[in-house]
Amino acid sequence: MRAAWYDRQGPAAEVLQVSELPEPEPGPREVRVRLRLSGVNPGDTKKRGGWLGSPMAYPRIVPHSDGAGVVESVGDGVDPGRIGERVWVWGAQSYRPSGTAAEFTVVPADHAVELPDGVSDEVGACLGIPGITAHRAVFSDGPVTDTSVLVQGVLGGVGSLAAQLARWGGATVIGTVRREADLERVDRSVVTHAVALDASDVVERIRAHVPDGVDRVVEVALSDNADLDAAVLAVGGVLAAYASRRDRPELPFWPMLFGNVTLRLLGSDDFPPHAKQQAAADLTAAARDKALAIRIDQPLPLDQIAAAHDHVDAGGSGRVLLAVP
């Protein structure tokens, strides 16, 4: 099969290779998926680059955890009726060496989720890492019906899905963007109130819409926004952070303590299995309900995987996909 891989870490153009590799075979309770699209995420490029000193987990890695395709064969214990099923894939390269940047990938059967009619492969290939992270950030502390959710960085990959899932779940969504000029890009059918972080009165603008404070915050930059989060959270609110610009962020301890704030840190590879399964089910249902809209760049061919990784590292606005031959 045609596949992209690396056997050492470093810059994309230096370490990523594309060649023929043996086709994987499904084991018990696994399925083999013939991939059409592979989703590229920042976590994939960080693994390849050795971010924070992370080592090579396996001698050779076929990258990417997300994708979409068709179940081609199944292992023991899996219903053969699944053969031919359109699926989206998550966790393909989470604690496994071979991900979706290939013609085929083998994953546990419950990591290949049936795509409803009317949901494109492109959307399916974008749901895994960002969708499951967004779901955990929004719903880890229960339903959000009739609550208020502040999504920091609402135009980002995780942030946009978090906002849409919160709205789908019945919450009032407030979103932030970096600059005033970005406000026009916010989907007002999802985000009831949007605020630019370069304004001089961000706390006042948020509090004007939720005088008692927001119930939950989905945070993309804890080190940058901790003071703002503490100032706008309701008593007993939840701050769910999945990223930080600094690895040792300073926190306003006493305001958070007196606010009885719950600080939840989210590392998607190690979410509880039941949380991942619920996220996969809810993401599929939300996509079926036409509640998810994702900005997707034109897919690049598999042979251009290095350019795709560089595009992700540069922070483009659309999701990056590889078209698998």
Explain what you see.
The chain is an alpha/beta fold and 325 residues long. It folds into two domains: 2-126 and 294-323, Medium-chain alcohol dehydrogenases, catalytic domain (Quinone Oxidoreductase, Chain A, domain 1, Alpha-Beta Complex); 130-269, Rossmann fold. The protein has ten helices and 15 strands. The protein has helices spanning 12-15, 42-49, 121-124, 128-139, 157-168, 202-209, 222-232, 253-258, 273-288, 305-313; strands at 2-5, 17-20, 30-40, 66-74, 86-89, 104-108, 112-114, 148-151, 172-177, 193-196, 214-219, 233-241, 262-265, 300-301, 320-323. Strands 3, 4, 5, 6, 7, 14 and 15 form a seven-stranded mixed beta sheet that branches. Strands 10-9-8-11-12-13 form a six-stranded parallel beta sheet, with helices on both faces. Helix 8 links the parallel strand 12 (233-241) and strand 13. Helix 4 crosses helix 5 and helix 4 packs across helix 9. The longest helix is centred in the C-terminal third of the chain and has 16 residues, at 273-288. The radius of gyration is 20 Å and the shape is globular. The N and C termini lie close together (10 Å).
